[in-house]
Amino acid sequence: MVSLRCKMMVKAELKKLGLQHEVVELGMVEVYGDMTSTQREQLKRNLLSSGLELLDDKKSILIERIKNLIIEMIHYSDEVPKLNYSDYLSEKLDYDYTYLSNVFSEVKGITIQQFIIENKIERVKELLLYNELNLTEIAYKLHYSSVAHLSNQFKKVTGLSPSFFKKLKQKRNSNLENI
């Protein structure tokens, strides 16, 4: 669950099944009492029909928790982290980073670092499209060591420079205005 809409959908499904919940957070739900196997199966089906998935095995749950922490940190937090990503994940999940990294790579086929970079670049794209911050401010906000580092990573991932990406957006908008 990455968005408020997802959380609302999960809460609604829990309510339909008469399940009281304590917490509905990114990728995690705490339910009061025990859930019957029938309720669990019904919840699983209902969530699946909404495009969400109920995870049962420990590795899948751990992977989702890793992904959600990274997404939360990159997309929803304006706070400068006091720890690097590996220490942050280890502290939040109470696992050794090497273990987290190995499990993530085994299941997802990419490293945690690659996942972080992909998400940071997606965030850079969003911020460029909003046109509220310049590249220096974006680099600072996303904790890049320099604008050059951000630009090099952006080009490596997208094949475009940040300024060319921004020009494409402006050109697209002006073409739409001329229609």
Give an overview in words:
- This protein is mostly helical.
- Among the domains are: 1-54, no CATH class; 115-177, Homeodomain-like (Arc Repressor Mutant, subunit A).
- The protein has nine helices and two strands; from the N terminus they run αββαααααααα.
- Strands 1-2 form a two-stranded antiparallel ribbon.
- The radius of gyration is 20 Å and the shape is globular.
Features:
2 strands; about 180 residues; about 65% helix; mainly alpha
Compact overview of the structure:
This protein is mainly alpha-helical and 179 residues long. The protein has nine helices and two strands; from the N terminus they run αββαααααααα. It is 66% helix and 5% strand.
Our estimate of the beta-strand percent is 5-15%
CATH class of the domain at 115-177: Mainly Alpha
Percent range of helical residues: 55-70%
Our measurement of the CA-to-CA distance between the termini, rounded to an integer number of angstroms, reads: 38 Å
Mean pLDDT: 85
Q: According to CATH, what is the topology of the domain at 115-177?
A: Arc Repressor Mutant, subunit A
Uncertain regions spanning at least 5 consecutive residues: none
Number of strands: 2
Name the CATH superfamily assignment of the domain at 115-177: Homeodomain-like
Query: What series of H and E elements makes up the topology?
Result: HEEHHHHHHHH
Rg, rounded, reads: 20 Å
Our count of helices gives 9
Q: Rough shape?
A: globular
Strand order of the largest sheet: 1-2
